[in-house]
Amino acid sequence: MMIEFSILPVSEDTHLGKYIAAAVKIAHESGMDYRLTPMGTIIIGEWEPAMAVIRQCHEAVRQISDRVMTRIKVDDAKDGARLPEEKVKAVESLLGFQVKK
Prior knowledge:
It contains three helices and four strands. The protein is an alpha+beta fold. The protein is globular, with a radius of gyration of 15 Å. The two termini are 23 Å apart.
């Protein structure tokens, strides 16, 4: 299972780095497989542990922001989870070229 999430603090602060760093530190320390992207974070793993990490990330950002909105997208394939890089390679194979990264 692959779960992408993004946490948006609702405040007047236009610099999000400190909020992102707080969440990514939790994802990293969880030991779960994760990827930081420019638009969110992807966690690869089972439902319960992944959602527990996402909740911890949400709560950490909530502690330093007055309001927080968290968006979650779940990719749950019957044939098992593929890594994000494998999904990109499959599309590149169909295209016949490497996409920009």
